[in-house]
Amino acid sequence: MDASVSYVFENQSRFIEELIEFCKIPSISAKSEHRKDCRRAAQFVLDQLTGMGLEASLEETPGNPIILAKYTRGDDAPTLLIYGHYDVQPEEPLDLWHSSPFEPVVREGDLIARGASDDKGQIFAHIKAVETLLKTAGEIPVNIVFLIEGEEETASANLEEFIAANRERLEADVAVISDSSQYGPGMPAICYGLRGICGEEIRVEGAKQDLHSGSYGGAVPNPCNILCEIVAQLKDAKGRIAIPGFYDDVLPLEKWEREAFASLPWDDEKYRADLGLQALCGEEEYSTIERKWGRPTLDVNGVFGGYMGEGSKTIIPAWAGAKITMRLVPNQKPKTISRLFREYVAQLAPDAVKLTFLAAHGGGPVLVPRDARFMNEAVQALRFGFGRDPVFIREGGSIPIVSTMNEQLGVNTLLLGFGLPDDNAHGPNEKFNLKDFERGILTSMKLLQICGQ
């Protein structure tokens, strides 16, 4: 690996310049006015992959194109499916950025730009690892498939259908995703568990129009009041979710997991203070990390209805709504939870109002066995790239593509995050440490090498 490591160090300035060019493209998938920018970002990635000799193409979808690229070793070499995304979150709120989100700057070793960490910098590390091995060794001992989409930040609307229609082209022995973070600075991590998600929107409707609260108050149902009563009954006084059957399929945390989590450096008081909270809360019998990583949740994301402008408007609203997401843990199924949620809410709603539901995005939880194939190689690769053994963590968030690939392609996923927890992904002043970019390249390079041995 000496020649490959030297190549990374010698070309790091160019790699950074290319990453900066990538981050200049405002590939915001949520905004239709940036449709051309998304295509421009896709073309940038395509040019990178074809420029190093890979067979690559832009695959059209009803939305933004998907990039599919292959390096074929042949024989009986294993195949690694490397997934990432070139689209980014909207830049707002602009007034909180210290520099323009699409005019990248380097400050104190960090590249600051929208998409720097999520996910342009991380997927670019894999791309540069492949370039490095091809330039220095002339070959790679594994087959590689790149699957890079442009709608991850808008729930990957077209990806599942694409995967279902292209199973043979996407056949692999393991998937690799770097769209998460280390546990902390200099503490690489392998994420072996993700929570799933079940999103629901409920709408309570009363009269056909807003009514005068004086003339009609006391005689007609108030959807805002009723919605609040429903929401208040979704959890009990101790914060436990009150939906009957909600916990039936929950896979309990194992003893070794609780011991491993307890051994990680963690400070509840610092966590509370950093968030500006008066106190933390959650299930009493679980630690903060356990609540974040291994327990299901139900959270109201927004409540709306009635008059919300300046001053007073004395009405009984015609309707009210709430958006709710439930994070799920292994063995819970989004469809089952959706059904249980709707049945329970329907029981709570009085006959005086009309209740409707709108399904939001959903995705199953993931738990990769610690002894899964290539897990040991991932440990070795991170040790090589970061200079120390990784810790094993779960993540409270959801990456629906992981469960999709498991269900559709039958592969486990190695979640190797090169970012940091404070990279401000989705927030202002998003950053990616350039030393971690280098470490990510080295890690990916080593992984590709040893998986083929």
Structure explained in plain terms:
It is a single chain. This protein folds into two domains: 2-194 and 365-450, Aminopeptidase (3-Layer(aba) Sandwich); 196-250 and 296-363, Alpha-Beta Plaits, CATH 3.30.70.360. It is globular. The chain has helices at residues 2-24, 35-51, 116-136, 159-165, 213-216, 223-232, 255-263, 268-274, 288-294, 334-348, 375-386, 400-409, 434-450, and strands spanning 55-59, 66-71, 79-85, 105-107, 110-112, 143-149, 174-177, 189-194, 196-205, 211-212, 299-305, 315-316, 319-328, 354-363, 366-367, 391-395, 413-416, 431-433. Strand 1 and strand 2 (66-71) form a beta hairpin. Strands 1, 2, 3, 6, 7, 8, 15, 16 and 17 form a nine-stranded mixed sheet that branches. The longest helix is centred in the first third of the chain and has 23 residues, at 2-24. It is built from 13 helices and 18 strands. Helix content is 35%, strand content 21%. With 453 residues, it is of the alpha+beta class.
Beta-strand content bin: 15-25%
Give the oligomer, counting copies of the same chain as homo and different chains as hetero. Answer: single chain
Low-pLDDT segments:
none
Number of helices: 13
Q: Under the CATH scheme, which class of the largest domain? A: Alpha Beta
Shape: globular
Q: Any idea how many domains?
A: 2
For the secondary structure, the number of strands is: 18
Q: Which sheet architecture does the biggest sheet show?
A: 9 strands, mixed
CATH-defined superfamily of the largest domain: Zn peptidases
CATH architecture of the largest domain: 3-Layer(aba) Sandwich
Helix content: 25-40%
CATH topology of the largest domain: Aminopeptidase
Mean pLDDT: 96
Cα end-to-end separation: 14 Å
Structural class: alpha+beta
Report the radius of gyration as a whole number of Å.
24 Å
